[in-house]
Design goal:
Elements: E1 3-12, E2 17-19, H1 20-24, H2 31-38, E3 42-44, H3 51-66, E4 75-79, H4 90-98, E5 104-108, H5 114-127, E6 133-140, H6 151-154, E7 160-169, E8 176-183, E9 191-192, E10 195-196, E11 210-211, E12 214-215, H7 217-238, E13 248-251, H8 256-266, H9 277-280, H10 287-297, E14 306-313, E15 317-324
Parallel strand pairs: 4-5, 4-6, 13-14
Antiparallel strand pairs: 1-7, 2-3, 6-7, 8-15, 9-12, 10-11, 14-15
The structure holds acetyl coenzyme *A.
Acetyl coenzyme *A (ACO) binds near residues 152, 155 and 215.
Enzyme class: transferase
Keywords: Acyltransferase, Cytoplasm, Fatty acid biosynthesis, Fatty acid metabolism, Lipid biosynthesis, Lipid metabolism, Multifunctional enzyme, Transferase
Family: Belongs to the thiolase-like superfamily. FabH family.
């Protein structure tokens, strides 16, 4: 079985920052409500840059850091719930602009678990056949998708992109130690974005219905605080480790209270659960790699450190990948 190495990480967020106080000037909310309920203080909002643009920045930085040529990529994956369009895939747009002409490119739709699902797809490709080099990016421009008239969800989200380069190797240990992924499609209506409806008459040239964001926050909260600890325990056990062996739990940044509850359920110290939600809000598929890249850049995550990467969200989905960085 081929081994997998995580080669580089990179991230990019749009320049424009919107604080809680600024939001409270356009909707019935307050910094106090948002901070205490979620831990969010601000978010980055894209003005003019679409999802593929954010991802392209990440892709270019990954190539620069690694010294890899674009044509050496075999697979380019973008995890997103806010693609530029139904088709072409955002990954295909990035592949084209990057001139990664040998890379197969497609998107992964698993909302905030997208990066973890992407790691699984990458692992499968790298373990078989001729795929040697994979670029995986989680990227979102949620500001174009969310319903800005709904204060219960609008205050939660931000834009950004981050990703990693993965490579197969024939010797040494694998950086991928164990995983747990589950989908609960029966709860699909708990979090929806960009929902379409079939036309009701034919021919019909006028009716184009796309619904913006809707979420049952309480249900997603309950789902996360139950399913994420289970997923982490399953992945850690598959990696033949104990929770105490894990140095960092890099969790999807949806709500700092969710992270605190998960730490409590796992009986692990909060210091092992880094947070950056205050600065970025919930960036969905970008959130886990954004935090991972931040910790690597700050020197907090060094080679050899064991990490549980875990995401949850629309689908509903949940996924954990245990890695040795
Ligand atoms: N500002 C001020 N007041 C607000 C706001 C706001 N932005 N939003 C809601 N309120 C009010 C409500 O109207 C309600 O008022 P009422 O009691 O008078 O009716 C009150 O605050 C409490 O509202 P709740 O919805 O009960 O607040 P709760 O404590 O449940 O927090 C939250 C809401 C933050 C959304 C929480 O449920 C949560 O974090 N859920 C998880 C969501 C999540 O993780 N989503 C991401 C999934 S990832 C993905 O796939 C994209």
């Amino acid at each position: 079985m081929k081994k997998i190495k995580i080669v580089e990480t990179a991230s990019y967020v749009p320049q424009k920052i919107v604080t809680n106080d600024e939001l409270s000037q356009i909707m019935e909310t307050s910094d106090e409500w948002i901070s205490t309920r979620t831990g969010i203080k601000q978010r980055h909002i894209s003005l003019g840059e679409n999802t593929s643009d954010l991802c392209l920045h990440v892709a270019q930085e990954l190539l620069e850091k690694s010294g890899w040529a674009p044509e050496s990529l075999d697979l380019l994956l973008v995890a997103t719930m806010s693609p530029d369009s139904y088709t072409p895939a955002t990954a295909a747009l990035v592949q084209g602009k990057l001139q990664a002409k040998n890379a197969l490119a497609f998107d992964i739709s698993a909302a905030c678990s997208g990066f973890i699902y992407g790691l699984k797809v990458a692992e499968k490709f790298l373990q078989q056949g001729s795929t040697k080099r994979v670029m995986l990016i989680g990227g979102e421009v949620l500001s174009k998708v969310i319903d800005w008239s709904d204060r219960t969800s609008a205050v939660l989200f931000g834009d950004g992109a981050a990703g990693a380069l993965l490579e197969s190797k024939t010797s040494g240990d694998s950086d991928f130690l164990g995983a747990s992924l589950h989908t609960f499609g029966e709860f699909g209506d708990k979090l929806e974005a960009g929902k379409t409806e079939a036309i009701s008459t034919f021919p019909n040239l006028k009716e184009h219905y796309i619904r913006a964001f809707s979420m049952s926050g309480r249900d997603v909260y309950t789902f996360a605080t139950h399913r994420v600890p289970e997923s982490i325990e399953e992945a850690v056990s598959k990696a033949a480790l104990t929770l105490d062996d894990i140095d960092y739990f890099v969790l999807h940044q949806a709500n700092s209270r969710i992270v605190t509850q998960i730490a409590k359920k796992l009986a692990q110290p909060l210091t092992k659960f880094p947070l950056n939600i205050a600065e970025y809000g919930n960036t969905s598929a970008a959130s886990v790699p954004l935090l991972l890249d931040e910790l690597v850049t700050q020197g907090k995550i060094k080679r050899g450190v064991k990490i549980a990467l875990s995401g949850f969200g629309g689908g509903l989905t949940v996924g954990t990948q245990v890695i040795k960085y």
